[in-house]
Specification:
- The protein is an alpha/beta fold and 220 residues long.
- The chain contains eight helices and eleven strands.
- The strands form three sheets. The protein has a five-stranded parallel β-sheet, with helices on both faces. A four-stranded antiparallel β-sheet has the order 6-7-8-9, with helices on one face.
- A hairpin with a 2-residue loop joins strand 6 and strand 7.
- Helix 2 runs parallel beside helix 3 and helix 6 packs across helix 8.
- The longest helix is centred in the middle third of the chain and has 16 residues.
- The protein is elongated and about 50 Å long.
- The two termini are 24 Å apart.
- The model has no long low-confidence stretch (mean pLDDT 84).
């Protein structure tokens, strides 16, 4: 599941990104309304956390523009403002839910998961299949044929980035950005460590290295 956080309070944005990444989500962060509109319009996100008071373009306008363009991604509005008028305006522009700062992180996660469940619906399949490899994103379990493969949270997140783009080359930078967070300042070779671990568990030929470009998940 990919989430986009559009929030100009950088400390809050980093905190939310780290927490939601720990929950197993792939998280992108931007701090400007115009950039948020561009990223939400171009990316295949499962949910957008959208602050209202943003530079460039406020959250109401971002939400309205996405809906006018036919984008039905679930949007959870975040704001320091409170009151019936603000909530009504947010929902009128097409937001799916509304949360006033300061909020409980537990409540935020519950709202996010509820919106994702609502979007999925009873008939939606949470399973991503690549050859005999199956990833159940709802239960966060992975199977190779009939055998379950036990992965850590980070291993699952790296594999999910490769699986949703199976057959395509995914760069190391893209994996770092989605699985860790935009402010990650550690060794970028950490991606290689997790890819190596996945190869040991899934089979060496499952993840191909495309020299100078990134990695590609194949059916095997």
């Amino acid at each position: 599941m990919r989430l986009l956080i559009v929030e100009d309070e950088r400390r809050l944005a980093v905190s939310l990104a780290k927490g939601l990444t720990a929950e197993g989500f792939a998280v992108d962060v931007v701090h400007d309304g115009l950039e948020g509109l561009h990223r939400a319009g171009e990316g295949s996100y499962d949910l957008v956390l959208l602050d209202i008071m943003l530079p460039g373009m406020n959250g109401y306008r971002v939400c309205g523009a996405l809906r006018a363009a036919g984008n039905d991604v679930p949007i959870l509005m975040l704001t320091a403002k409170d009151g019936e008028y603000d909530e009504a305006e947010g929902l009128d522009t097409g937001a799916d839910d509304y949360l006033t700062k300061p909020f409980s992180y537990v409540v935020l996660v519950a709202r996010v998961k509820a919106l994702l469940r609502r979007r999925g619906g009873a008939g939606a399949s949470p399973v991503v299949a690549v050859g005999d490899l199956r990833m159940d994103t709802a239960t966060r379990r992975v199977y190779r044929g009939e055998d379950e493969v036990v992965l850590t949270v980070k291993e699952f997140a790296v594999l999910e980035q490769l699986a949703v783009r199976a057959g395509e080359v995914v760069s190391k930078a893209e994996i770092l950005e989605h699985v860790w967070d935009f402010a990650y300042a550690g060794d970028p070779n950490i991606v290689e460590v997790y890819v190596s671990a996945l190869r040991r568990k899934l089979g060496a030929g499952r993840i191909q290295t495309v020299r100078g470009a990134g990695y590609r998940l194949v059916a095997g």
